[in-house]
Amino acid sequence: MASGQQWVLVEMVQAVYEAPAYHLILEGILILWIIRLLFSKTYKLQDRSDLTEKEIEELIEEWQPEPLVPPVRKDHPALNYNVVTGPASHIIVVNGKTCINFASFNFLGLLDNKRVKTAALESIKKYGVGTCGPRGFYGTFDVHLELEDRLAKFMRTEEAIIYSYGFATIASAIPAYSKRGDIVFVDEAACFAVQKGLQASRSNIKFFRHNDMADLERLLKEQEKEDQKNPRKARVTRRFIVVEGLYMNTGDICPLPELVKLKYKYKVRIFLEESLSFGVLGDHGRGVTEHFRVNIEDIDLISANMENALASIGGFCCGRSFVIDHQRLSGQGYCFSASLPPMLARAAIEGLNIMEDEPDIFQILRKKCQHIHKALKGISGLKVVGESISPAFHLQLARSLGSRESDVRLLQDIVEYCMTRKVALTQARYLEKEEKNLPPPSIRVVVTVEQSEEDLDLAASLIKEAAQLLIH
Fold it and tell me: Pick from 47, 244, 290, 411: most CB atoms within 10 A?
């Protein structure tokens, strides 16, 4: 037994002699580090403070927390409201001044329509003023189901779903379908509601140049090559194209027929946001699909708000039944917000009745849009941005003054010049630090069926006067 132990000891000594020098050095360093850790003194956190009680109190008194929000100028437009007295219809009273309204999205003049107001008043007597509950918790009223049915029939789709807030409609619809790992191809001019929906989806977002189908196809081809490298992942990745029928930020119409071709070529789904084009484009106001004679079944989901042409509140999505039913389970704005007040649902239904009873209203609106577009062409210092049949378009400076702040101030001077002469305009407003692609400053001009040719000519002449006087 003793001889065996002696033999092991001899082997260990031989191993030490045969080991490379760097090996011995490394082992020696590790042994010394372990010894140091074993014998080093430990300190409790509270025992290591070298400050006296008085010094600690002084530091606490001197400490100033960072402001919760950055400082904002007192003259910021968001803090200085234009106060409206009475309905924001054809004639509007702003800050005590009576003006012709070129600022509100009351395209079809339904905001102060007698039929709509009568329907809403009758609804108040029957249902009260609100619902006090989401759709799944005693917030579904018979008038909601009637409105959804009417919207589906009007748009010629299988089913529709309504939301109580226009902004939340597309912002809820996108993340209901597109999740982390999915891919969304989006026009860079997409409005803020679309951007918030994309952000909530946590999908892989790829922006293409505004209305540039060649750039979109380039991105689709690149993705196709990526998919070929990993077919297993590609099979479970959903792909969407998100566009607006009539863009809020540019007044342009999307090239829908070309988008449909790309959809079938690259096997993607199309989400179409029609808040501006619904009730405006097409012979019957059904939007950009009717405008281009595109089969509505080629579009996977259509979203629009009811706050423009219908002059109500809220929004809706329409499409195939299995697509819409999914939102009833996962559309956040639908599941968690109090449902649309019945009086507003009834007002929207009456608005649809008027749209169906008076189809000539859309042709009248288009003619007025074309009239003012033509009148505003060629104004020195300003350029018209938007389609000639768009009822909401932009006036931008032909040449910037060098800074956004200076451009905004100059455009506001033009707005105020017109306001003092009884024409109400407004600048387009953006959350500048939040926008993905911040549009240039602009005056937004809104056309409605209630404006006469004299009103349109007056607005155009005042804008021209202001430009000549203020733009140097």
Answer: 244
